[in-house]
Amino acid sequence: MTEIDYYELLEVSKSSDKTTIKKAYRKLAMQYHPDKNPGDNEAEEKFKAINEAYQVLSDDQKRQIYDRYGKAGLQGQGQSSGFGGFDDLGSVFEEMFGSAFGGGFGGSRRKQRKTYNYNLDIAIETVIEFNEAVFGVNKTVEYSYKTACSSCKGTGAKGGKLSTCSYCDGHGQIHTRQGFMTFAQTCPYCHGSGESVGEKCPSCKGKGYEEVKESFKVDIPEGVNTGNRIRVSNKGNIAPDGSRGDLYIQIRVKEDSHFVRHDDDIYLEVPLFFTQVVLGDTIKIPSLRGELELKIPAGTKDKEQFKFKGEGVKSVQGYGKGDLIVQISIKYPTDLNAQQRELLEKLQESFGIESKPHESIFEGMFDKVKKWFS
User: Is the Cα torsion angle 77, 81, 82, 84 positive or negative in sign?
Assistant: First the structure.
């Protein structure tokens, strides 16, 4: 399973205090809220993710578990799914505008209590070859999803019977006062449901779900890169009411031994013997789609680059293709035999003073430096 780093999502460090985390969350929540970004799926997914991150990092107990064991340690802790963070967002709005605004964001919305303790959306990582990312591939994906335990209907409680949460007395929220202001926060123990597990379900050992393995084929489009996500609808976990989340496939691309990718551009280092750059040459080089001809002008410098337009990777967003950038790496002989040394010495002599450019540059400098210390 791919773990999303909650600290990176909220753009805070691991040493940040609660005030800093809440301030960062408030800023990002306002930026990516769906009402501000209608029809923007990426903003919606970002909003889900920052809500999930905030609900963990704002809870001391969950944050301690997450810091030590990662997201896997929170399984069964009842963290809310990404887009279910309206209560936490509401508390932020309440702090910003006060309780006079109808009890905060969504105050008129009737709260739906969640009786199962797992997220509906799933994220997995799929590793593909370099060429598969460039040209696309039909890939078999194997993963496991959760479905609600039939005995307890996803509650984790024996017979599906939940007890009233003792921390919030079943209200699903706790209230704190600061001066004349009253602030509401989702109960950190029942996560807003107002109920908690008394006796664990013997069938699922209190987890509330069973795991099912599945495999299917998915088309991975050409141009994907490490960090890209593919959303597969209705392949996530299944809730007690039969509704199902989505599966997010996180792509990781293996590196190639010769081609180096940066965004949609491809870089290729071409080693050349020093005589090739002195005399100039024309060579064949490999590209993503065959071979190309590279003309090397006489006097080409080390690390000099040559660009082939449109010979890179096709943009996964459909913006055309990147470029192939060829970088020269000049190679010199490391061991000379007697004949080679003699030929090079004769060549150097044939250039006369041109073969020793340092002499003309440094002429007179030695005397000048000596005067500095006389």
Answer: negative
Residue pair 85/52 in contact by the 8 Å Cβ criterion: yes
Question: Is the fold of 1-110 the same as that of 260-332?
Answer: no
Question: Which residue type, as a one-letter code, is found at position 143?
Answer: Y
Give residues with Cβ within 8 angstroms of 31, minimum separation 6.
none
DSSP 331-353: E--S---HHHHHHHHHHHHHTGG
pLDDT attached to residue 107: 39
| Both tokens assigned to 111 | 């709260």
Please report the pLDDT score of residue 40 as a whole number: 82
This prediction's pTM: 0.57
Tell me the mean pLDDT per 10 residues along the chain, length 374: 72 88 88 79 84 88 81 59 43 42 37 66 95 95 92 80 77 74 75 75 86 94 93 93 93 95 95 94 95 95 96 91 96 92 89 72 76 78
pLDDT at 222 (0 to 100): 94
pLDDT at 180: 60
Q: How far is CA 213 from CA 71, 76, 128, in A?
A: 20, 19, 21
In a 3-state reduction of DSSP, which class is residue 281?
strand
Question: How does 216-236 read in b/e, with b if 16+ C-beta sit within 10 Å?
Answer: eeeebeebbbeebebeeeebb
Domain ranges of the chain: 1-110, 260-332
Strands (E) across the chain are located at 122-128, 137-148, 163-164, 173-178, 181-186, 195-196, 209-220, 229-232, 247-253, 260-262, 265-273, 281-287, 290-296, 305-308, 324-331
- Domain 1-110 in CATH 3.40.109.30: no
Cβ-contact 13, 7 below 8 angstroms:
yes
The hierarchical CATH code for the domain 260-332 is 2.60.260.20
CA 361 from centroid of its chain's CA atoms: 52
Predicted confidence at residue 283, as pLDDT, reads 95
